[in-house]
Amino acid sequence: MKKIISSPQAPKAIGPYSQAVEVDGFVFTSGILPVDPVTGEIFGGDMKSQTELVLKNMENIFKAAGIQPKHIVKTTVYITDLTAFAEMNTAYAAFFKENPPARTTVQVTALPKGAYVQIEAIGHK
């Protein structure tokens, strides 16, 4: 049975999807954007600051599910410009200091709201 996970400290869904869904102890997030949860607007003008906000939003979603960042097992990072990979990676490494999850990073043509980065993740209780 699936359980819908939602956090008021993360951006509300802008379409017909949930922030996250829990099934059998696994929590799957939707793609998380660098959106300020209060204003609903994209935050920051560079890859590093956008990545930091995405990770903070992700942490808040997992917190609502009772999961700490150390229990995140897989992420997929979508960025609009691979030449900014180092900026994203710097913010990512600061968030996942030890035993980081498995990760895939791909460049995409565009992301919703003109964001530079979007991350989806899987955590396990």
Describe the structure.
The structure is a single chain. The protein is α+β, with helices and mostly antiparallel strands and 125 residues long. It has a single domain (3-124), classed as 2-Layer Sandwich (60s Ribosomal Protein L30, Chain: A), CATH 3.30.1330. The chain has helices spanning 47-64, 85-95, and strands at residues 3-5, 20-23, 26-29, 72-79, 102-107, 117-124. The protein has a six-stranded mixed sheet, covered by helices on one side. Helix 1 (47-64) packs parallel to helix 2. The longest helix is centred in the middle third of the chain and has 18 residues, at 47-64. It is globular and about 40 Å long. The relative contact order is 0.24. The model has no long low-confidence stretch (mean pLDDT 96).
- Bulk shape: globular
Widest β-sheet, arrangement of strands:
1-2-3-6-4-5
CATH topology: 60s Ribosomal Protein L30, Chain: A
| Helix/strand structural class | alpha+beta
The structural domain count equals 1
For the record, give the distance between the C-alpha atoms at the N and C termini, rounded to a whole number. Answer: 15 Å
Strand percentage lies at 25-35%
Tell me about the biggest sheet?
6 strands, mixed
Q: How large is the count of helical segments?
A: 2
Total beta strand runs: 6
Rg from C-alpha positions? Answer: 13 Å
**CATH class group:** Alpha Beta
Name the CATH superfamily assignment.
RutC-like
Which ranges are low-confidence, i.e. pLDDT below 50, for 5 or more consecutive residues? Answer: none
